[in-house]
Design a protein that fits this description.
The protein has about 290 residues and is an alpha/beta fold. Helix 1 (about 10-20) links the parallel strand 1 and strand 2. It contains ten helices and seven strands.
């Protein structure tokens, strides 16, 4: 029987509703987040995570569109327009860039330097109203948000870069991506961009300090989850791995790196990911330093 751990009125309500809609037998375990139990400890005890911002590049050519074709013998599917990825060097969009290289699909890369304010222009707002990267023009419409783009690309790669739908491993992949997108990325944002969340210098430092504590806990939790794993899902490489790789590179930056304990499992994972030629090509195209 399924068992859902949920807090009243929290985002878990969506999962609770879907369980009711599906008509599946389940048990509901209420875990009240408002009662003050530490979030990470609670997740660990419940077992929900058991196998449960800045871009920084040097030398990428801003505003330049680079064309990329498939490897010899692999052509674009008939009737499909060339894809166009909008990315900022070293940002979370690097994951989508890597997966495009892995998939061997023909695409154009449009470098949009977030640090130079290029995502804040009216022209880019017409591409993505949230004025963030990545954005992927599929020829049928523009996709935004990393998880959506990675999923869309994974299903078109050969071989697929996600497990087949319907199984636990497919859900596990989305669990990884949701953790990175909805929990880890915002923690990095509050450390790197603390000035967006406070109005005084004292407030900025208070936000950054508190966010850094949370971030370090998250980094160590993820490092533990990668113990004994070749890749995020075990032996098979998936879109989760380049996404994890991006955040490992962020953890090597100040002010995180000087206070971050060793992430030995994650470092070994990042080295395996970096050994892939698609990863090296994407980093070179964005003007990023080698790992």
């Amino acid at each position: 029987m399924l068992k859902l751990y949920a807090s009243p009125g929290a985002c878990s309500l969506a999962s609770h509703i879907v369980l009711e809609e599906a008509g599946l037998p389940y048990a509901l375990q209420v875990v009240d987040a408002r009662a003050g139990v530490d979030h990470l400890q609670r997740i660990g005890k419940a077992g929900l995570l058991e196998h449960d911002v800045a871009g920084e590049g040097a030398g990428a050519r801003t505003g330049v569109e680079l064309q990329h074709g498939p490897p010899p013998g692999r052509g674009a599917p008939r009737g499909r327009s060339m894809l166009k990825l909008y990315a900022s060097p070293g940002a979370c969009s690097l994951a989508s860039h890597i997966v495009l290289e892995e998939a061997g699909l023909p695409y154009a890369l449009q470098v949009v330097d977030a640090r130079a304010g290029e995502t804040r222009t009216e022209a880019y707002a017409r591409i993505n109203p949230l004025q963030r990267v990545p954005a992927l023009d599929t020829g049928e419409g523009v996709l935004t948000e990393t998880v959506a783009i990675l999923t869309w690309l994974a299903e078109r790669a050969s071989p697929r870069l996600l497990p087949e739908p319907g199984g636990l491993e497919h859900a596990r992949a989305h669990e990884w991506m949701a953790l990175l997108s909805a929990t880890l990325h915002p923690s990095f944002r509050m450390v790197f961009r603390a000035e967006r969340f406070a109005r005084t210098p004292e407030g900025v430092e208070e936000v950054r300090g508190a966010a850094l504590e949370t971030l370090l806990d998250l980094l160590q939790m993820i490092d533990g989850r990668l113990a004994g794993q070749t890749f995020a899902l075990g032996r098979d490489y998936s879109v989760c791995d380049p996404y994890l790789f991006v955040f490992y590179t962020w953890a090597r930056r100040a002010p995180v790196a000087p206070v971050c304990p060793p992430l030995l499992n994650w470092e070994a994972h990042a080295r395996r990911v970096y050994d892939r030629s698609a990863v090296r090509r994407a980093m070179e195209q964005e003007g990023l330093s080698p790992l």
